[in-house]
């Protein structure tokens, strides 16, 4: 079993749709949690950190459930420019071992 | 423009060649990383340097040899690679200075390696 597992993609949604991505992690030593975005043939870039209290950044909302070892990302009012691969990322206690999930591909259509 | 600079952007090498990938950051980050990414796969951690010391080696074959000459530079020396080593090699850095707290990575644009 992979340490970080994400919904298989791709997700094909129309502009304006709301889409949710899920992620589970298996290592209880996981300490910090993030969503990264990666465009085709580009490097990953931080989208947002994920906190136990939940956090929101514009159209994006992230949630963490430590008891269930579950992370989510909600994108509201999808834009064409949201088309990318979304990577769920966890970091172990100690801070340096950063593990990426396989990613979920999102296509937003006009 | 990315704040982590990687060179070269593209590299083609034979299995008997010796080459190096270079990475530079001037953000004052004290942790630097090498990741390998194959097509349609996530980045896989290879090495982590903290304060110029190797702190993580994810059982990477010895044909990959990392080096951290100073806090701003990270090299990956390549020798006797195999065609299956062809991939995008990503360098990253982070501000994490001790063993606590969140660890946000800033990635370079990557070096795309082809081994013939």
What is shown here, in short?
Chain A is built from no helices and eleven strands.
Description of the molecule:
The complex is a heterodimer of chains A (110) and B (116). Chain A is an all-beta fold. Chain A has no helices and eleven strands. In chain A, the strands form two sheets. In chain A, strands 2, 4, 5, 9, 10 and 11 form a six-stranded mixed beta sheet that branches. Chain A is globular. By secondary structure, chain B is mainly β. Chain B has no helices and eleven strands. In chain B, the strands form two sheets. In chain B, strands 2, 4, 5, 6, 9, 10 and 11 form a seven-stranded mixed beta sheet that branches.
Task: Give the arrangement of secondary structure elements.
The complex is a heterodimer of chains A (110) and B (116).
Chain A: E1 4-6, E2 11-14, E3 19-25, E4 30-38, E5 45-50, E6 55-57, E7 60-65, E8 70-75, E9 84-92, E10 98-100, E11 104-109
Parallel strand pairs in A: 2-11
Antiparallel strand pairs in A: 1-3, 3-8, 4-5, 4-9, 6-7, 7-8, 9-10, 9-11
Chain B: E1 4-7, E2 10-13, E3 18-25, E4 31-37, E5 44-50, E6 53-57, E7 64-70, E8 73-79, E9 87-94, E10 105-107, E11 111-115
Parallel strand pairs in B: 2-11
Antiparallel strand pairs in B: 1-3, 3-8, 4-5, 4-9, 5-6, 7-8, 9-10, 9-11
């Amino acid at each position: 079993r992979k340490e970080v597992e994400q919904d298989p993609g791709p997700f094909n949604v129309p502009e304006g749709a709301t889409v949710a991505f899920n992620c589970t992690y298996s290592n209880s030593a996981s300490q910090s949690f993030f969503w990264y975005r990666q465009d085709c043939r580009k490097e990953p870039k931080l989208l947002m950190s994920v906190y136990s209290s939940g956090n929101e950044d514009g159209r994006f909302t992230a949630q963490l459930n430590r008891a269930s070892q579950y992370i989510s990302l909600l994108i509201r009012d999808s834009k064409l420019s949201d088309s990318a691969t979304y990577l769920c990322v966890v970091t172990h206690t100690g801070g340096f071992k950063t593990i990426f999930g396989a990613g979920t591909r999102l296509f937003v259509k006009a | 423009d990315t704040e982590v600079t990687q060179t070269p952007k593209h590299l083609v090498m034979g299995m008997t060649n010796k080459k190096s990938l270079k990475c530079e950051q001037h953000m004052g980050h004290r942790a630097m990383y090498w990741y390998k990414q194959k097509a349609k796969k996530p980045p896989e951690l290879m090495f982590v340097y903290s304060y110029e010391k190797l702190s993580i080696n994810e059982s990477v074959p010895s044909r990959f040899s990392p080096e951290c000459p100073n806090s701003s530079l990270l090299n990956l020396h390549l020798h006797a690679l195999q065609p299956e080593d062809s991939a995008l090699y990503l360098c990253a850095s982070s501000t994490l200075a001790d063993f606590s707290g969140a660890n946000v990575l800033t990635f370079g644009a990557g070096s795309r390696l082809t081994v013939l």
